């Protein structure tokens, strides 16, 4: 928006003392190529476009990254069939240079990896998304934008003083100690996006339910076993991609993430419990419906989270040389999973405004689902188009 309208005065408010403290700074660090998503969907389009824009940005701004590629590996006949489906999907989504890899050739791509068939995506890469976000923040400031940290938004109100008949009264963006005013507001609040939406009169649905994704770390002496991203074939019944091997920019290998209900919206550990968040979840019928549908797999995830060496069995299918002695607990991220009242997971972007004259000048991005880090530059273009249309710039 600042690039298109250099005279526009823009500010970002952020409740933490730095940018990228939540999902953007706690993710797998993968630059996704766009294989999985339904052809024609926003997710597919924005991911493929975002991949291209991201690599261009990394090269222009010297952001360290590595195109290590990705193998999606089938372990049984059912998954073998799905490799071909994924190849078709990826091709329809214009994912570049995908290759189907037969069993005997898997080792050519990852010497210690085993499987029945695989899909190779050479354009998938890795990067530190928190670092990328810091670059974005610097660009924004260099163009004249201001960033207010430690600024937790607690409400919005239309200011009473009039600016004359043609001008709109400003919207005050309130926090505990400070107040800023603006003509228009865009919110992208991740794990709190539903709460901000309610502040301008939007419906509570879709709600955000926090799902923690925990990683294990591979020991130094086994790091050489993994040089590329190794992913399972995703199970279509579940929304997440499954536990994968991911090389990090610092040379570590992360194994994960799993998916367990977090007891706080920013609950990075089991012992992080927020009573308000728990009460809200306990009152939300959608969550009961989801738990009922996924009761057995959900319990298995919790057991593997607590007794983490059990998770190693899943990893050994891909690299048999990994044993439970080679892993230790690693970091975790929390996904802002948008869910409707029937317990259905909302898979696409959701934009909302609210009621009254404030509602027509506020856009809430209520759901920016994975791979929104990869898609971020394409999402930014999409949102800039929306702001120009909705706010008539
Ligand atoms: C475990 C995990 C793995 C993932 N792996 C990948 C991956 O490999 N590749 C990929 O492309 N994507 C990945 N994703 C998805 C990606 O990280 C997210 O989709 C993306 O980071 C979302 O960005 P966001 O800005 O919407 O949310 P966030 O990064 O969560 O930012 C929201 C911000 O809003 C602030 N905020 C909230 N409430 C308020 C308030 N009241 N006032 C002021 N500020 C507020 C928060 O402090 C936060 O900084 C992963 C996500 C997770 C959780």
Automatic annotation (TrEMBL):
Q: What is the reaction catalyzed?
A: (S)-2-hydroxyglutarate + A = 2-oxoglutarate + AH2
Q: Which SUPFAM superfamilies match?
A: FAD/NAD(P)-binding domain
Q: Keywords, A to Z?
A: FAD, Flavoprotein, Oxidoreductase
Task: Determine the domain of life of the protein's source.
Answer: Eukaryota
Q: Does the keyword Glycosyltransferase apply?
A: no
Query: What GO MF annotations does this protein's record show?
Result: (S)-2-hydroxyglutarate dehydrogenase activity
- Give the EC number(s) under which this enzyme is classified: 1.1.99.2
Supply the name of the protein: L-2-hydroxyglutarate dehydrogenase, mitochondrial
The species this protein was found in: Dufourea novaeangliae
């Amino acid at each position: 928006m600042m690039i298109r309208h250099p005279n526009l005065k823009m500010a970002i408010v952020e409740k933490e003392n730095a940018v990228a403290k939540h999902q953007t700074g706690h993710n797998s660090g993968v630059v996704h190529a766009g294989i999985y998503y339904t052809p024609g969907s926003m997710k597919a389009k924005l991911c493929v476009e975002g991949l291209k824009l991201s690599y261009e940005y990394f090269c222009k701004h010297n952001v360290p990254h590595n195109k290590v590629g990705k193998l999606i590996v089938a372990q049984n006949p059912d998954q073998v069939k799905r490799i071909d489906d994924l190849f078709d999907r990826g091709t329809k989504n214009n994912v570049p240079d995908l290759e189907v890899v037969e069993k005997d050739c898997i080792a050519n791509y990852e010497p210690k990896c085993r499987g029945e068939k695989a899909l190779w995506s050479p354009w998938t890469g890795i990067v530190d998304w928190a670092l990328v976000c810091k670059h974005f923040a610097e660009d924004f400031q260099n163009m004249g934008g201001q960033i207010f940290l430690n600024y937790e938004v607690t409400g919005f109100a239309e200011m009473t003083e009039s600016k004359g008949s043609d001008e709109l009264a400003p919207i005050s963006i309130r926090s505990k100690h400070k107040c800023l005013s603006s003509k228009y507001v865009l919110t992208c609040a991740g794990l709190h996006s539903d709460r901000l939406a309610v502040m301008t009169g939007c419906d509570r649905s879709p709600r955000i339910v926090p799902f923690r994704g925990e990683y294990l770390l591979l020991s130094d002496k086994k790091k050489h076993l993994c040089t590329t991203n190794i992913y399972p074939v995703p199970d279509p019944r579940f929304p997440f991609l499954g536990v994968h091997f991911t090389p990090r920019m610092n040379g570590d290998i992360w194994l994960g993430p799993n998916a367990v209900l977090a007891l706080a919206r920013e609950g990075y550990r089991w012992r992080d419990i927020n009573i308000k968040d728990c009460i809200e979840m306990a009152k939300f019928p959608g969550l009961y419906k989801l738990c009922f549908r996924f009761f057995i797999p959900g319990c298995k995830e919790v057991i593997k989270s607590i007794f983490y060496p059990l998770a190693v069995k899943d990893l050994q299918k891909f690299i048999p040389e990994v044993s439970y002695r080679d892993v230790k607990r690693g970091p975790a991220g929390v996904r802002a999973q948008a869910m409707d009242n029937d317990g259905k997971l909302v898979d696409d972007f959701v934009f909302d405004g609210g009621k009254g004259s404030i509602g027509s000048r506020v856009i809430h991005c209520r759901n920016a689902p994975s791979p929104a880090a990869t898609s971020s530059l394409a999402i930014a273009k999409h949102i800039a188009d929306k702001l120009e249309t909705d706010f008539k710039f």
